[in-house]
Amino acid sequence: MELNKSNIMVATDGSQASKQAFFQAVEFFEYKNIFNQIIVTHVSDGSKTYLPFEFQSTTIYEDYKVELLSRYPEANYQLVFQEKAQGQENVRNQILSIAGDLNVSYLIVGFNGRKGVKQDVTILGQTVRNSVYNSKVPLIAVKKLYKRDETNGFKFVVCIDGSKKSYKSLESAIALSFDERDSLLICFAPTPDREAFGTTIKTKVEEFMGKYQRKWQYKQLDASYRAIENVIEMINNSDDLDFVVFGSNGYRAQLENKTFFGSTADELLKKAKANIIMVP
Fold this sequence. Notes:
globular, UspA domain-containing protein, UspA, 10-stranded mixed sheet, single chain
């Protein structure tokens, strides 16, 4: 799978976390020209007159203008800075609307906001919570900046459960793992009642991956009624898994024909130390 050339968008609030998200976007954008544009978006709230200088809209604009001008010709970037629209509930919803209007391929946000890392890291900030629960485009939540080097590429772990959404997530990981140094770990973590589906899922994954030139491996974890804890333990005990890719919901939602944000996705979002790629 190759991305239909589109745009990658970073939402910024002037925080260090959103700047880190910008640099992660740059890592994807600069290689092989798979995106047409990198878009930096900021929505300001005029009622917040108390914000310090570094968080004011004009300061943020000038900062990113310099960053973009120093890297790309003007055709390769956009700065989309808006005031919160009258009647808009909050700036977060407006950012999601902008992402939809611009038909971006990915929306990238920092995992934390202006207040920095929370004492309890499993408590989500408002921006990342609203984004992952409501985004209609694939979303990357950046917890740490990862870079390719001379020998190592990005390493993606893709959570697969046999649902259509999980195969859509695999497609997203394939699209982003475009460097020959990148690799995929495709992981099935069954509950005991679904352990027998492992052979079928593995066969389908092998057929699916046969279409692409990617480095990958398939892994089935031991069956457990808390299978997601096994996945998180595997990710957090590894030093070389950079991104965890999953659907916003999985097999149960597919069976029930519902679109709720799944408990597995919620646990991964909060507890996995890797950067998050969530496919709606």
